[in-house]
Every structure is written in structure tokens, then in C-alpha cells.
Amino acid sequence: MKHLKLKNYIQKGSPERFGHAWSIYSKLNPDYEEQFLRWIPFLSPLEWSGLNVLDVGCGMGRNSYYALMNGAKSCTSIDVSFKSLNQAKKLLKKFKTKSKVLFCSAYDIEIEKKWI
To answer: Which end of the chain is more exposed for a tag (fewer CB within 10 A), N or C?
Structure first.
């Protein structure tokens, strides 16, 4: 059933449209960090230390980037768009061993760790 949902979703074209957008608008905008911090007001920068983050629908990887910049131990970034994943890999390259970028649907996540 999980793969059927993913297949139907992909056939609608959304991953391709988002991937295309992230390949054009792939630079970090200074407003993105402020936006990220507003989305997670319950965590101070000190509280990110040691956390393993799962970024579902990571797009260009900007939320993964800011989680790691704020001290997360690791981040797994997933998406169903290869164009998005290519941008995320470029953006997160500096984090090397702390970052994994994977082709995966939210429907197919295998829980290996405790995510925040």
C-alpha cells in the first residue's frame, strides 16, 4: 500500500515541480534562518546539541542546514525529487559525516533512531 501511494503522488508531478524550483532558487536567503527559528521556537540553539534530525521533504536542504548549524548531531534529509536531493547534497556537503541525503518517501521511512 505504501508504494502505491508514492506512485500515485509521483505521477501527479509535484516532486518534479518542487525539484525544478529548488534547482533555480538554491541559494540560502538570509530570511530562511529567521524563518527556520520561528518554526522551532521550543528549541534554543543549545538544545540542538546531540539531536538526530529527520527532515522529511527536505527540498534544497535548508532546514537540515540550519539544524546542523545550530548543533544537531546528525541529520537525515529525505525527498522524492532527485533535483531537490542534488541541491540538498550540494548545500550539506560541508557537514560530511553528519548528513545523509536519501531518496525516500515519507510513507517508507524506516525508523532507525529516535528523531526529534
So the answer is: N
